[in-house]
Input
Amino acid sequence: MTRSTVTTPPPGAEPPKAHPGAPGPGTALGSHYSRCFGCGADHPTGLHINAVTPDGDTVEAEFTVGEAHQGAPRLAHGGVLAAAMDEVIGMSVWLFHKPYVTGRLETDYLLPVPVGTTLHLRAWCNGIAGRKAYLEAEGRIGASDGPVAVRAAALFIEVDMAHFAEHGDLAAIAAEHQDYEVNP
Output
């Protein structure tokens, strides 16, 4: 995949470092919001992605393409695949214990993904420069060593929790994120 300069770490970017309180190797990562389309258990047609950090540096997850996720008949919608990549990348920044938002997402589609297919997703960070995190992900068909169907590169921007209070629902944030202080 040829990445743009926007999603490529600049010279001098720091290697990523997991926060000392980040989930350890083998730990499952919970949903960041119960109604999230990507990871929320309470979203009726969402992706319901559950992720694990196998090593404390990367994130792995599985996503099975359902009927509600199709674009062309019996094939996954490209936007749904991009959402799955955005979600697994977003879960990987949890290892830093800082809130981030997607600034840019570049997605390459390499193979069609039929309904019923399980995609094995993996995401990692290539570097951090200031508030910017440079990340990548891939989705493989059928197994963690299966053929790559989709790849993504992203730029995520660190924000504070006030960002979500200002632009979202403060009550929902307070209900589900007692570990963050929110001062709008």
In short: The longest strand covers residues 118-129. The beta strands are 27-29, 50-53, 59-64, 100-109, 118-129, 132-141, 148-158.
